[in-house]
Amino acid sequence: MRKSVSHGQNGWFLENNTVRLFLTETGGHMAPVSFFHSSKKPLEPYFISPWQDEHQIPERPVLRPMRGDFFCVPFGIDNAYRKEEHPSHGESAVGQWESPTVTIEGEDVFLSTRIRTRIREGSVRKEIFLKKDESVIYQRHIIEGFTGPLSLGHHAILAEPGKGRFLISHSPIRFGMVAPRREPAYRTQEYYSLSPSARFTRIEKVPTIWKEDPYADCSVFPAREGFGDVLQIYQRQPRAQGKPAWICAGAPSEGYLWFALKNPEILNSTILWMENRGRHQVPWSGRTCCLGLEDVRSYFAEGLKYSARKNPLSEIGISTSLRLKENQALTVPYIQGVARITKSFGKVTHARFDKSGVSFFDAYENRVEVPVSWGFLFE
Prior knowledge:
Elements: E1 2-6, E2 9-15, E3 19-24, E4 30-35, E5 71-72, E6 79-81, E7 84-86, E8 101-105, E9 108-117, E10 122-130, E11 136-144, E12 148-150, E13 152-154, E14 156-159, E15 166-170, E16 173-178, H1 185-188, E17 199-200, E18 206-207, E19 215-216, E20 220-221, E21 227-235, E22 245-251, E23 256-262, E24 269-276, E25 289-297, H2 304-307, E26 322-324, E27 330-340, E28 348-354, E29 357-362, E30 367-371
Antiparallel strand pairs: 1-2, 2-3, 3-4, 5-13, 6-7, 8-9, 9-10, 10-11, 11-27, 12-26, 13-25, 14-25, 15-20, 15-22, 16-17, 16-21, 18-19, 21-24, 22-23, 23-27, 24-25, 28-29, 29-30
């Protein structure tokens, strides 16, 4: 580990023989990340906001370091709850993290850091593990001292593929829903193409606002330039207990498959934020293209204010927050990684887990095997 500056932010580089990552001191945002960094063709899938290298300072604190993946507690925009006024995506995404401690065992690396929260007094400990020869990042966040309802989740953001498009797929879902919209586009300077609050069963067929083109295929991105859309999918519990839920984005033109694995009993849904130059406020300025694949327990990105009370999801049995008791700690494990794929590798249709890791298959039964200790999610 070494302290450094990357794209305008102070933080720390951490690496082993396969993965090199940067963690910002402000907000604990993770990027850039280079997988296979010592090879001739390293892979760097994560988004770094363009204003990082500019002199403007965004008004909203979470946008200042915004990049890669960061942990949000509480998750969402409007986090007013009773007398609490949490910032957008919580103090964990905007506050100052302590200088980490690092343990090294051969080519395995373990980092631990912490942030003390003031609005709801407590702390969040961040642990990152890198294992020898694995193109995988293991994360664990331990929330301590919090009492009451909480929305939470990871906010992973991928950069637009240079030449092609992402092919998005996921483990089985119950259904999905498009985000509600309380303000028309001309007031917020954000333009959307999907029908607000519409339900769907497949991301390949999501209702739009247009009569002439009533459905959109949201398994492909970028698409629908000039619009920024948000939808949420709700995972089924895997048939076998103790098996992960997953989401992935393949970029065959760039030669990689990005994936995330989670414990669906903790993070029970995934938000797809498909930003294709649809936001025109500063600092977005109609120029930003990125894909958010955000594993959460939350009512969209509406925040704790809406996640902790009755909402259209909680009324049909979808939990949108967790309630922590006094002196109860909560551990949230998470895994992200990449695998190299060929240009002929198609959209993932299913995954198979065994003792050595996970295998992802496309429709033609082409397979990519990834060594990963996914049992970490259930320890």
